[in-house]
Design brief:
The protein has six helices and no strands. It has about 200 residues and is an all-alpha fold. Helix 2 runs antiparallel to helix 5 and helix 5 runs antiparallel to helix 6. It is elongated, with a radius of gyration of 19 Å.
Length: about 200
């Protein structure tokens, strides 16, 4: 499991010249780190003098950030597994017409899955940007820079995941599927910039 690697081992694997972990897995890692930092800002606010009015909001925010952190951590391996599935489909035999037809079907299924996984990562990372903004706005001002790093990491994770969606869409024959995901990608891209700008506007350093 990639998510169980030490930081050094994960970086070594990323640098090894193998197909996994690739950009999609790293996108999920960025999102998970961002969620963790957002959770940290909330936890550094809870129980602190001067932030009593924000305590309930920060407890709820910490809970949401924790759930996203756990989900995005799982996506580190989920994305790698999806790409492994694509490679396995391409290795299927194609010596007969029947085998070729089955292989094509399996490839299309695997690539669709490989597009949907980073799309989910992008959705989750966008949610983290918004949470980071709330943490910066209402949370401990001494941790505002940590919230800013969270927002920027989440933005990177979201955009990186979207690139992985796009590259897979180019190999999918199902036009309706491609159209639907393309539209959602455009909407997410628009949200990313707006939410990051809004989040960082509350950082005063």
């Amino acid at each position: 499991m990639l998510a169980d690697c030490t930081i050094k081992d994960y970086l070594d694997k990323a640098a090894a010249g193998t197909a996994v972990p690739g950009g999609g897995s790293v996108a999920a890692l960025n999102g998970a780190l961002a969620a963790g930092l957002t959770e940290m800002v909330a936890n550094l606010t809870i129980g602190k003098k001067g932030y009593e009015a924000a305590e309930d909001d920060m407890k709820a925010l910490a809970d949401r950030a924790a759930k996203l952190r756990i989900k995005l951590t799982g996506s580190i391996d989920k994305d790698a597994d999806a790409y492994t599935g694509v490679m396995a489909a391409f290795k299927l035999p194609k010596t007969t017409d029947a085998e070729t037809a089955v292989r094509k079907q399996k490839i299309q299924y695997a690539i669709k899955h490989a597009a949907l996984v980073p799309l989910e990562v992008a959705r989750d990372a966008v949610a983290v940007i918004e949470l980071a903004g709330e943490a910066i706005d209402k949370g401990n001002k001494n941790a505002a820079s940590d919230g800013a790093v969270a927002a920027m990491n989440a933005r990177t994770g979201a955009l990186a995941a979207i690139y992985n969606v796009k590259i897979n869409l180019g190999a999918i024959d199902d036009e309706r599927f491609v159209e639907e995901l393309t539209q959602e990608v455009k909407e997410l891209e628009s949200q990313i910039n707006k939410k990051e700008t809004a989040a960082l506007a509350n950082v005063s350093v």
